[in-house]
Amino acid sequence: MADIFSEVDEDVRKDKSLALWNAYGKYVIAAAVLLVVATAAYVGWQNYVQGQSEAQGAEFEAAAKLMGEKKFGEASAAFAGLAESGNAGYRPLASLREAAALIEAGEGADALEVYDRLAKDNSIDPEFSSLADLLAGYYLLNNGSTADVRAHVEKLAAPGGIWSATANELLALTYIKDGDTAKAKEILTSLKDDAGVSQDIKSRVSQLLAALGGE
After folding, report:
1. Chain centre to alpha carbon of residue 128
2. Which three-class secondary structure state does DSSP give residue 124?
3. Average pLDDT of the chain?
4. Cβ atoms of 18 and 177 closer than 8 Å
5. 109-132 burial: b if 16+ Cβ within 10 Å, else e
6. Third-level CATH fold of 2-211
7. Predicted structure pTM score
8. Above 80 in pLDDT, residue 180?
9. Minimal CA–CA distance to 106: which of 155, 60, 139?
10. Which residues are CB-neighbours of 208 under 8 A, at least 6 positions away?
11. Can you tell me the distance from the alpha carbon of 16 to that of 19, in angstroms, rounded to the nearest whole number?
């Protein structure tokens, strides 16, 4: 009987932890996208004349407006066009937004193809290709297997990487889903104790540990 109650308690903690991530995960990803927006603007300015960058910026804004209007099919097509013709700054960013529009349109499989293509593109800055893998992992957490998630984010989790902390958060969640709370706690505790991890991430990690009974 004690074992039954223990299993139920473990399931409750797992569900609570995953609910926490679902609540704040979208804000984590939004912050990551904002970071690469700044990178994209810089790269575009450095590599192309102002007039061309402004024209492509207008295209990007028009596509973003379609997203805001929930015209996801039209938005994905507009972003795809810019991903084909854009400069080094806008091309990868447009691909990321194309994938986001496809997900909103219910075309997750097509979005994953965009992410995978971008992740393998050696012609773009690694911040973009790495973010593509991270976003694919975020999508797959609720729409794929934990093995799929780890295949995308494990390589991003090494110390010193730009997305290392968030990748480790995702990895911890895959182990929570698998029922391996010991491994999840190990990863989360390492993040909590890492002086190089930002306070907002430490705060989220502390909440997850508390939900797992780790604090």
Report:
1. 11
2. coil
3. 80
4. yes
5. ebbbebbeebbebeebbebbbbbb
6. 1.25.40
7. 0.79
8. yes
9. 139
10. 17, 20, 21, 169, 172, 184, 188
11. 5
